[in-house]
Amino acid sequence: MAGQDEVVKIRVGDFTVGIVGLTTALEEAIQKNFASDPAVVEYLLKHLKSRNYIPPSAEHDYGLALLREYKRYKGETVEIEQSHELEVKVLGPGCPNCEKLEQMVYKVMAADNIVGSVEHVRDLNEIAAYGMVATPALVINGEVKCVGRLPRESQLRAWLEEAAEKNQ
What we know:
Distance between the termini: 41 Å
Structural class: alpha+beta
CATH topology of the largest domain: Glutaredoxin
Number of helices: 7
Number of strands: 6
């Protein structure tokens, strides 16, 4: 069963986490037609804990995130929550410059103590969805910063610091 082992990324509080088997759990929860939101949350947490580590101290945040995903999956309108985490995406199939840009991002974030998630998007369809024709490309908090070139480290640092400040 494909949905059983599929990892779906969701926002839990300020973090993006991967949940194994979320699609299957959501489908099963919808079939059970729960009468209340707490019942949905209880079912999803119990079902997903067997395959995912959910820290006891974060159960409340996971519950809110799972309920949001459940409602979204049912097609209900869900309020978009603002993330306070910096989100950086390097777009590129894995060429040397793409790899170098990813390493530059890690280096600057580590040196400046900038907290956030970094994702290297290698899937050509996902890259195309950004309208990119040249790589590497850098996207910070949804905003394309550069395309087809490596930025200077000082420019990269300025972009990351500015974005981190806006997220606070």
